[in-house]
Amino acid sequence: MKKTTSEIIQNLRKEGYSNIFVWKDSKGTYYNWHKHPYDEIRVMLKGEMIIKTPTNEYHLRKGDVLNVPAGEIHEAYVLEDCEYVCGSKI
């Protein structure tokens, strides 16, 4: 069963995530190598992007979920206009 954005956000709160928001990126957006002091989760609602770490490459599409652990360096390329739910956990 497909979850609504509200249900996704509710589930993330139950899992201990905070600072939860919906974000949109346009095709061609690039986020250079960076890291966060907290775990970051991304739940794709639509679109397509690639997130790279030094050891892996993740091709994310609608319905995909990716957790980037605190301190892990990563970069992102937006291949198609996208929208996703983002949250952080300390």
Q: How would you describe what is shown here?
A:
It is a single chain. By secondary structure, this protein is mainly β. Helices cover 11% and strands 58% of the residues. It has 1 helix and 6 strands. The protein has one helix spanning 5-14; strands at residues 18-25, 30-34, 39-52, 57-61, 65-68, 74-89. Strands 1, 2, 3, 4, 5 and 6 form a 6-stranded antiparallel β-sheet that branches. It is globular. The protein starts with a helix and ends with a strand.
Kindly name the structural category: mainly beta
For the sheet with most strands, the description reads:
6 strands, antiparallel
Shape: globular
Number of helices: 1
* SS elements, strand count: 6
Round the mean pLDDT to the nearest integer and report it. Answer: 96
- Summarize the amount of helix as a percent range: 10-25%
Are there runs of 5+ residues with pLDDT below 50, and where? none
Give the SSE order as H and E letters: HEEEEEE
Q: Give the terminus-to-terminus CA distance.
A: 30 Å
Radius of gyration (Å): 13 Å
What is the strand content?
A: over 45%
Give me a quick take on this structure.
This protein has one helix at residues 5-14; strands at 18-25, 30-34, 39-52, 57-61, 65-68, 74-89. It is mainly beta and 90 residues long. Strands 1, 2, 3, 4, 5 and 6 form a 6-stranded antiparallel beta sheet that branches.
